[in-house]
Amino acid sequence: MEFQKIKGTITSAIVNGEADIEVPEDGFALTGTSTAVHVAWAEVERLSFEDYVVSAVTKSGVYAISKLGQNGEWLYNHMLEAYGAKVRKALFVSGNPVVTAKGDVLDVRSVPVEVYENCIVSLPPDLSARRVPLCFATGFEDKDYTIKVSVMDGSEGLYSKMGYDHDPVSKAVQDGIKTLRAKTLAQITELDPSLNSEQSAGLAKLMPEGMAVPFGVVRGIAPSFAEALEAKIAESRAADPYEAFKEITDADGICVGFRRDERAGRQDVAPTEPPADEAVSGDVNETEEAPDAYMLWLIAPSPAGNACAVEFAGAEDEAAATYVYKFDCGFDEFRIKLSMALEAIAFKRDVIRFTDEELAKPENDVYRMANDRNEAVRFVRSCFAGRAIHRSQGSWRSQVLELFE
């Protein structure tokens, strides 16, 4: 939708009176005779159009745009489109929707609903926009013109009053769940071809899209698969930390997650980590060729059970840091939240340890918006206790134990 500069009357703490209004891709701009302001979409908490007034509620105040004449609804729709595009980026939605509809989502009425191959996205013009990952679906129900998707963390997606779009949405969601389950099953059998059908089915149910599961549970289902994962870890930079974790805590309680790395073998991919001081944080330079087809990570619970260390298993020549978290909930709840948070941000792992100051940087606006709209990301970040840097095995271990206290 092409946008031409228009005029309106602004009421706000910064700009007041007649002003020019522009809507570039990253926000909206208001220019008066004495003051101008650019408001990034990351600052906007709600958009509305009532009584011929377009309002944008932001973290710093309200911008009310009036006296727009016939341009009022047009301006609002254009802002909605640009805002929605930015929200989709923050929800890490890719590709085109299989089905689009409009209906009630949970308790919110008349909301745009989009079904993609791996998720359902609802896009109200506020912070309640949500992406439900189909890979973590534990149940599906289509009853009384209401679609319910149950998720591993106990949350639900409820979609109703979609009219003629109900059946296409229902089918697309079911097809997406089935496709993702088949994908997980294929990855598991590729990693360990010796698995029988019962073993592969059991593992696929527990480990969708990288869900981290205790090694003891994995061994109980398929010892050969646990051995295959340990062989991958042994080839990675996490080999020594894994051995140390087995001394610090119960080896069967250490969780392992894995997923196929779609970037494997590519040299043209852009960096997927937010900017950081590599000398300090040890982040991976992912512009280089991915060394393996699989990404693996470990979650090692502290002996007391109220903290854990998170280790990402990269290649041996990759520097990294171990993330430590402390939590008041049970360890099982935390490892599910952590896995869901990683999936929600497309495994941009630095985001789960960002401070509020780092998150507030302009270059991290997408991650800030993701944090605002995803409970798992907010929860995991709130539990972050610190990092143990890999300088030497002895100093690293001391840092982990100290952070566990």
Describe the structure.
- By secondary structure, this protein is α+β, with helices and mostly antiparallel strands.
- The chain has three domains: 6-90, Pleckstrin-homology domain (PH domain)/Phosphotyrosine-binding domain (PTB) (PH-domain like, Roll); 99-179, PH-domain like, CATH 2.30.29; 196-404, no CATH class.
- The chain starts with 5 loop residues before the first strand and ends with a helix.
- The strands form three sheets. It has a seven-stranded antiparallel beta sheet with strand order 4-3-2-1-7-6-5, covered by helices on one side. It has a seven-stranded antiparallel beta sheet with strand order 11-10-9-8-14-13-12, with helices on one face.
- It is globular.
- It has helices at 71-90, 166-191, 197-206, 215-221, 223-234, 239-248, 278-281, 331-344, 356-359, 365-373, 375-382, 393-404; strands spanning 6-11, 17-22, 27-31, 36-40, 44-50, 53-58, 61-66, 99-105, 108-115, 119-122, 130-133, 137-143, 146-151, 156-160, 213-214, 255-260, 294-301, 307-313, 321-326, 384-389.
- Helix 1 packs across helix 10 (365-373), helix 8 crosses helix 11 and helix 10 packs across helix 11 (375-382).
